Structure formats: C-alpha cells, structure tokens
Amino acid sequence: MNELRIGSRRTPLAMAQTQLVVDALLALHSDLQIQIVPIVSDGDRDRTIELGPGVFVAALREAVLDGRVDAAVHSLKDMPTGVFDGIALAAIPPREDPRDALVATGGLVLDELAPGSRIGTSSPRRAASLLGMQLGFEPTPIRGSVGRRIEQLDAGAVDALLLARAGLLRAGLADRITDVIDPSRILPAPGQGALAIECRSTDQPTHKLLAPLDDPVTRFAVEAERTLLAVLEAGCTSPVGALAEPAEGDDGEIELYLRAVVHAADGSSQVRLSATGPLNDAEGLGRRLANDLVAAGADSLLERIS
C-alpha cells in the first residue's frame, strides 16, 4: 500500500504526536503518502459536558471502523483497558519520559510552592497525590489543551500546573517545565508517555505497515501497568499510579520492575507496593501486583470512590 490515512484528535498535542508517527513511517517508507485526518469528539465540541472515560478514544475508533481513516494514534494512558471488537493494537512506539512535570509561576519547583498554592490538574491521581503530601496544596480543576492550560496559568487562574512531561516535550513546551517529579513521590498514570497506534483487526496490510514501529520493551511495560489497572477494575481516571521499567535481575537477565499505588481520592491514605517479574510475563506481573494491592486494602479505597 502507498497511501495511509491516520486519525488524530485535532488538539496541537495530539497532532504533534501523530506527526511523530508519520515521521517514523516516512523514515521507513519514503514513498508512502500519509494524510492526518483530524477527528472531533463530543468532548472537543462542548467543553462544558462531563467527559466519560475514553470519550476521545471512542471517537477515533469509530472513525477507524467506519473507514474514514486507516489507523488512529492515541495517548495510551487515556485508553480503556478492555478489548474493543474490530480494533487491533498494531504498534506501541518507544516510550517518552513517563514522569509528571510541574509548570509553575516564577520558575518554582514543587518544594518551593507555598501552602495554599493552587495546582491545576484534571487528574484524580495527581490531585490525590498532592493532597497526600499534606503540604497544603490546593488541587484545582482545569481543562483544555496543554497550551490553553498554560495560558490560564499565565493569567493567574492557578499558581502551577501538574502535567505529563511527555506531553510538554512533544508540544514543544519543554522550556516551561520547572520541576520533574520523581516517581517515588508521584507515580505516573499507567501507560503515561506511550502512544498507541490502532487499525482495523481485519486490515492486515495496514497492520503490517505499522508493526515495525512497535517497541517490545515499551509494550511489555505498559501491558504490566494496564493489566494491573484492569484487575483492579479501575478506569483510566482513577487515582491509580503504576510504572514498569526494565531492570537487570540477579541472574543478569532483563526483567520488569513494577511499582504501583492506589490513593484514596482525598489523599488521606494510600497503598503502595512493587514487584518484579520476567519481561515475557508482563501480564502475570501486573495481575500479581494488583492482587497484592487488593490484599493490602486497595479495593476499599477504590470502593470509596465508586
């Protein structure tokens, strides 16, 4: 095939992420004709509506299934964990830095923010993490694209923003980062920093075209994180953090080191555990750590939220 239509949200960040995929494909197939097709969801049309889990993913998948596009690029952390009929996860490219980052007025780092500082975030995980620090921070709901959120920061609506570092890097806003948050303080969302490229499960030519972009280590890592999320029956908007990273085991073999945390929504308590396992059993590792979290009381924290 020599033509490909790739669906993307029309936000600047989503378009920039999709362009990264286009550039990677063109590096492999210089004669390929690629069109980026902006897809608009209900959440894009009306900023006042309450967003359900996966609303943007659903709009892109619908465009894939009805033939408007051949493939779609998602931020993997926003994707529901269940299997979706007719859709194949063709590739997960190498992951960008998964950590959270602070963008603060005056160039301040997190520990320099005063009690009462309003930190803008739309993430229950980030809000619970901030509250759990007991430093007097006030998580403040904020919506819009990364650029729009920074405009609100500059206008004084909040004192700082907590965002994914990967998104800031891809949006060309690395110079606005004032602090990068170590995962020992705030664990990122499962899948954060990774992209997912989907196509129709019956479209073998497109799947074959996209497959070389897949990074096995990234795929194993996010499989462990997302399996944990699925076993906990927690959605992508739950106050759950997880990060799997490759590490050298005692026998010299590369294995996965998985850390996870489940917060109470108000930050009053948390359950944080870790585990290691072989790369090729990422699903088993995620399942095992999820069960350990439940045994340690994480399910009661999630029940309070539901």
Number of DSSP helical runs:
10
* Shape descriptor: globular
The CATH C-level name of the largest domain is Alpha Beta
Order of helical and strand elements: EHEHHEEEEHEHEHEEHHEEEHH
Which oligomeric state applies? single chain
Percent helix among the residues?
25-40%
Rg (CA only): 19 Å
How far do the termini sit from each other? Answer: 47 Å
The helix-and-strand class reads alpha/beta
Give descriptors for this structure.
single chain; 306 residues; alpha/beta; D-Maltodextrin-Binding Protein, domain 2; Double Stranded RNA Binding Domain; 3 domains; 5-stranded mixed sheet; 10 helices; 13 strands; 25% strand
Structure, described:
- The chain has 306 residues and is an alpha/beta fold.
- It has 3 domains: 3-93 and 194-214, D-Maltodextrin-Binding Protein, domain 2 (3-Layer(aba) Sandwich), CATH 3.40.190.10; 100-180, D-Maltodextrin-Binding Protein, domain 2; 221-305, Porphobilinogen deaminase, C-terminal domain (Double Stranded RNA Binding Domain).
- It is built from 10 helices and 13 strands.
- It has a 5-stranded mixed sheet, with helices on both faces.
- Helix 1 (12-28) links the parallel strand 1 and strand 2 (33-39).
- Helix 8 packs parallel to helix 9.
- The protein starts with a strand and ends with a helix.
- The relative contact order is 0.15.
- The model has no long low-confidence stretch (mean pLDDT 93).
